[in-house]
Amino acid sequence: MHVGVTPPTCPDRLSTLVRVLTRVTPLVLAVSLLVSPAAASVEAAGTSRLPVLGFQSDGSTPALIAADAPGLAAVGVDGVNLTGPGSVSTPAVADRAQLAAAHRAGLTAMLLVGNWSDTIEDFSEPLAWRTLGHQAMIARAAATLAADVNTEGWNGVSVDLESLAPRDRAGLTAFVDALRADLPEAASLTVCVTSFPSLADYGSNGYDLRGLAAAANQLVLMAYDEHGPWENTPGPVGAETWVQAGLHAVMRVVPGRQIDLGVAGYGYAWRPHANVMLSDAGARRLVRREGGRARWVSTVGEWTATLRDGSTVWWSDERTLALRERLAARLGLHGLAVWSLALSDPIR
């Protein structure tokens, strides 16, 4: 039985939860005190030498972009969604404000396109299939996105279609191919891919890794949500061994220079009354308020704590990001990607 959270259908549930929780419980995401500033800064000093793509979730203040700009190379704005066969929602005024903030800071701005459904408050495979299952609808959606890029000044598109099925595999690759053909030559094109521990898992979840890499500049491996509030067994957001397994599987067919390693900037608490998502600062405040003691687990690369009421908390913060940066550099990856600016520690 899931406590307080409806279980989504895909192992990558971060975007689902951040949208639901920012709408339903914004105070959970806003809490902001520390457990131990000295401990939290260990291994996190200095700016990452790899480019960092920071994702800006729907409804977040553009001020976050300016605050994190020194540590970022690009911003992915959670802006538009497929809405029907070949149709894409129009970027909102708020999305354009994010675009302007990114450009003022001298950053590349990517328009994120997803298959989020407000009706089910989750990523919708049937919604994606209504476009991906028909070449004419693929061409129509790609042309719409390319027009948005051209008229509004975006620097590219980030494709974030999740909870997919094997039937979507060819259509997703065709969609990315169509975008590459329609976008300006200088525009960047990335594809967000859910992390799985074996190569076969990618194909069975709608990803033709070779085909996607042939058309896109980078693949963003969303190496988070190994565990979360949809299950009642607490565990790391993304343990080191699990992250490495997903990376090594992808690198069997995609060169490291085309991969951005996705890193969580948030955590989860499994509580008697409800399982919840927390910002990094919120996780520290909860632990301090509830009489817990934060403990860094070096073999996992995350923090954990047990609270007085039996709650368990796991979170991935700036120390985790520094650890993942070293992993990415060692493997020759292109860079890092952090979800999200509203939840994570400042990107330095």
Strand order of the largest sheet: 1-2-4-7-8-9-10-16
- Measured distance between first and last alpha carbons: 40 Å
| Whole-angstrom Rg | 19 Å
CATH topology: TIM Barrel
Series of secondary-structure elements, N-terminal to C-terminal: HHHEHEEHEEEHHEHEHHEHEEEHEEEHE
The overall average pLDDT, rounded, is 89
Which structural class matches the secondary elements?
alpha/beta
How would you summarize what this structure contains?
The protein has 348 residues and is of the alpha/beta class. 36% of the residues lie in helices and 23% in strands. The strands form three sheets. The protein has an eight-stranded parallel β-barrel, surrounded by seven helices. A five-stranded antiparallel sheet has the order 12-11-15-14-13, with helices on both faces. Strands 5-6 form a two-stranded antiparallel sheet.
